[in-house]
Amino acid sequence: MKLFFMSDIHGSAFYLKQALAAYEREGASTIVILGDELYHGARNPLTAEYGPKEVTDLLNAHADHILAVRGNCDSEVDEMVLQYPLMATYSILMHEGRRFFLTHGHIYSENSLPPLAPGDVFCYGHTHVPRAEKHGDIYILNPGSIALPKENTPHSYGVLEGDLFTVKDLNGTMYKQIRFTE
């Protein structure tokens, strides 16, 4: 099973269309969204083609393939218009015998990890900076932001296939990669 990870859409129909084209190109079965779907938030600029309603329609067209967690810019109103559950601050995903802790990153973060076991994977968004690293006996993944990347990183998403996680720019060029070896 191939999983497609994205985060921090922030209401950008322009970048979501590109990310969904990448999802189709990758042939993934599931879209994992790590928060901040519809709104830009008070600290962020408006995104290209800012359109929460259009973003809602685009995401709802894929609702049966989406697993999502709530970000700091998401609200209960968002769950009323999106046709998939959104309000959990975290979710647990088992993939090929490995536990993935999915969250946005504003409550749990690298500096405030939840209880994890050796070999577990901590997946988050929020920082808008891609990560694919191992810290001690825990893997740290962040697909970056499709709409508002920071620290001179590309507009990016992540793909998990087997034991390989790859961060790619929206054109599909590899940016970072890590293989789970435990």
UniProtKB/TrEMBL annotation:
Source organism phylogeny: Bacteria, Bacillati, Bacillota, Clostridia, Eubacteriales
Cofactors (names): a divalent metal cation
Pfam families, per the entry: Metallophos_2 (PF12850)
NCBIfam families reported in the protein's UniProt record: PRK09453.1, yfcE
Name this polypeptide is given: Phosphoesterase
PANTHER family: VACUOLAR SORTING PROTEIN VPS29
Single GO MF descriptor: hydrolase activity
Top EC group: hydrolase
Calcineurin-like phosphoesterase domain ranges (all copies): 1-161
Family recorded in the similarity comment: Belongs to the metallophosphoesterase superfamily. YfcE family.
InterPro entries per the UniProt record, alphabetical: Calcineurin-like_PHP_lpxH, Metallo-depent_PP-like, MPP_YfcE, Phosphodiesterase_MJ0936/Vps29
Keywords: Metal-binding
Alphabetized CDD domains for the sequence: MPP_YfcE
EC number: 3.1.4.-
